[in-house]
């Protein structure tokens, strides 16, 4: 993500936007998280990384709701 630091959000791909947003959530650590199509635009490796992150957050007590269509 370091390479995206100076980019405008509208210039990022959907997957890059998702990753930046999740990085921001990592910093704030809310007690609950609502994700709408969190894997949209992510490649397989990024999807696996997201899965691992969500499992870690769940194990730390965060409430997570994932919406898919």
Q: Overview of this structure, please?
A:
The protein has 69 residues and is α+β, with helices and mostly antiparallel strands. The protein has one domain: Rossmann fold, CATH 3.40.50. The protein is built from 2 helices and 2 strands; from the N terminus they run αβαβ. The protein has helices at 14-28, 44-59, and strands at 32-36, 63-67. It has a two-stranded parallel sheet. Helix 2 (44-59) links the parallel strand 1 and strand 2. The longest helix is centred in the C-terminal third of the chain and has 16 residues, at 44-59.
Counted by DSSP, the helix tally is 2
Portion in strands: 5-15%
Q: What is the H-and-E element order?
A: HEHE
Calculate the terminal CA-CA distance, rounded to whole Å.
27 Å
Give the biggest beta sheet. 2 strands, parallel
- Please give the radius of gyration in angstroms: 12 Å
State the CATH superfamily name.
P-loop containing nucleotide triphosphate hydrolases
The CATH architecture comes to 3-Layer(aba) Sandwich
- Judging from the principal axes of the Cα atoms, what is the shape? globular
Q: What is the number of beta strands?
A: 2
Q: Strand pairing plus helix content: what structural class?
A: alpha+beta
Could you please say which CATH topology applies here? Rossmann fold
Task: Give the averaged pLDDT, no decimals.
Answer: 87
Poorly predicted parts: none
CATH structural class: Alpha Beta
Number of structural units classed as domains = 1
């Amino acid at each position: 993500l370091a390479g995206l630091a100076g980019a405008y959000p509208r210039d990022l791909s959907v997957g890059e936007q998702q990753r930046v947003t999740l990085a921001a959530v990592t910093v704030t650590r809310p007690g609950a998280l609502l994700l709408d199509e969190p894997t949209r635009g992510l490649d397989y490796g990024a999807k696996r990384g997201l899965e691992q992150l969500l499992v870690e957050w769940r194990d730390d007590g965060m409430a997570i709701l994932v919406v898919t269509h």
